[in-house]
Amino acid sequence: MTADGRPGEKGRPARVRVTADLPASAAAATHGIALPGAPVREAGAVYVGGLVRSQLRLAFGCLLGFLLVAGAFTAAIFVVAHAGDPVVAGVPLSWLLQAYGYYPLILVFAVLYARAAARNERRYRSLSDADAATDAVREARPAGATGAPAGATGADGAP
User: Fold this and answer.
1) Long-range contact list for 36-45, CB < 8 A, 24+ apart?
2) Which candidate, 26, 77, 33, places its Cα nearest to that of 51?
3) Is the N end or the C end of the chain the one with fewer CB atoms within 10 Å?
4) Residue 103: pLDDT above 60?
């Protein structure tokens, strides 16, 4: 031991961090949202990317709309305050609008955003479920099958 309480370096090997390497196939088979080792379908990655883009577009649109409406509401309060400011129950109207007017705006935009986000997710699920069903049908069908019943022939008698 040294004077400061650390173990001496004489005769002791240096500490080495040991980590396990992932197999190249597991690292290459996943992208972003997939679990390690799970295969990633290209269509699924495209659908998820579309969902992310639509949710971001919705968020920015709601934010911009809220800021515009809140700015217009603030301007209306300013106009009311400088145009005589009527008194309601002993309190100036501009004060009441500031105290209680913004909450309904926030609630309306929150409900609009939640409903639109749920609609985006329903669309994503319907696309991914339809894609999964198509893949299941493709996997169940033997290679080279055309989908026609066995023994069926065309109008000219050819199979």
Assistant:
1) 41/131, 41/135, 43/131, 44/128, 44/131
2) 33
3) N
4) yes
Q: Rounded to an integer, what distance in angstroms lies between the CA atom of residue 58 and that of residue 51?
A: 10
Tokens standing for residue 135: 């893949």
Tokens of 139: 């996997």
Supply 86's token pair.
């009527």
Which helix or strand (DSSP H or E) is residue 111 part of?
Answer: helix 102-140
Cα 46 from Cα 49, distance rounded (Å): 5
Does the pLDDT value for residue 156 go beyond 80? no
Q: How far apart are CA 32 and CA 37, in angstroms?
A: 12
Query: Are the CB atoms for 48 and 32 separated by under 8 Å?
Result: yes
**Per-residue model confidence as pLDDT tens digits over 104-132:** 999 999 999 999 999 988 888 887 777 66
Confidence of residue 48 (pLDDT cuts 50, 70, 90): confident
Entry pTM? 0.56
CA nearest neighbour of 77 among 60, 91, 96: 96
Q: Tell me the pLDDT band of 67, cut-offs 50, 70 and 90.
A: very high
**Alpha helix (H) ranges present in 11-101?**
24-29, 42-82, 93-100
